Amino acid sequence: MIENLPPCPKCSSEYTYEMNALMVCPECGHEWVPTEAAGGDPAVAERVVKDAVGNVLQDGDSVVVVKALKVKGSPSGIKAGTKVRGIRLVDGVDGHDIDCKIEGFGAMQLKSSVVRKA
């Protein structure tokens, strides 16, 4: 089965392959997200994540929790106003699209609808 995969945009190698949602070039090591149509705008394929008030979030941003959250296994949840630094945007489960570490709780995922950009 021969697939028509696009050549590498960096070195034009024809030996590209798919790895999950990425395209990879084994010759130069370049990785990229393929666009829907050849020559399409790469910004269209990029996902936009907005916080509770509509600000666009990016990796590395600091956010503030806007409402109290219950945490399983913890007697006290996360209080409103808790600041979270250095978030990472991910394709999470059930709308949890922020991966972060919260002091006192550790690593967890949050929904962008319960935070605002700091």
Automatic annotation (TrEMBL):
It holds the Pfam family YjdM. Belongs to the YjdM family. Residues 49-118 form the Protein YjdM C-terminal domain. InterPro entries: YjdM, YjdM_C, YjdM_N. PANTHER family: PROTEIN YJDM, PROTEIN YJDM-RELATED. It comes from Streptomyces lanatus. Residues 5-32 form the Protein YjdM N-terminal domain. This is Zinc ribbon domain-containing protein YjdM.
